Amino acid sequence: MTDTKPIRRIAIIGTGVIGASWTSLYSAKGLQVVATDIAPNAEAALRKFVETAGRRSSDWACRPERPSRT
Questions:
Q1: Which pairs count as long-range contacts for 35-39, CB under 8 Å and 24+ apart, including other chains?
Q2: SS3 for 30?
Q3: For residues 27-59, b (16+ Cβ closer than 10 Å) or e, as one string?
Q4: Most exposed: 20, 39, 64, 70, by fewest CB within 10 Å?
Q5: Helix (H, G, I), strand (E, B) or coil at 47
Q6: Between vectors from CA 44 to CA 54 and to CA 56, what angle results, nearest 5°?
Q7: pTM for the full predicted model
Q8: Nearest C-alpha neighbor of 12 from the set 58, 54, 61
């Protein structure tokens, strides 16, 4: 028997068209979304996309990711 927990938080890596669409969908479903992207304007673009889609940007967080230097 498998014990399953409900999914409450989603991580999105990359906030281009596809990542922004997933962010919008999951936040509309009431899930907490954490998104990351290395693009300089990623957070502003994602917030605009989600708000244009009629979702509340306060339901998710955008975390800028810096490439590692190895």
A1: 35/11, 35/60, 35/61, 35/62, 35/63, 36/11, 36/12, 36/62, 36/63, 36/64, 36/65, 37/13, 37/62, 37/64, 37/65, 38/64, 38/65, 38/66, 38/67, 39/15
A2: coil
A3: beeebebebbbeeeebbebbbebbeeeebebeb
A4: 70
A5: helix
A6: 25
A7: 0.70
A8: 61
Q: What tokens does 35 get?
A: 């998104």
Q: Which amino acid is at 37?
A: D
The residues near 67 (Cβ < 8 Å, ≥ 6 apart) are 38
Amino acid at 50: V
For 44-57, the pLDDT digits (tens) are: 999 999 888 875 55
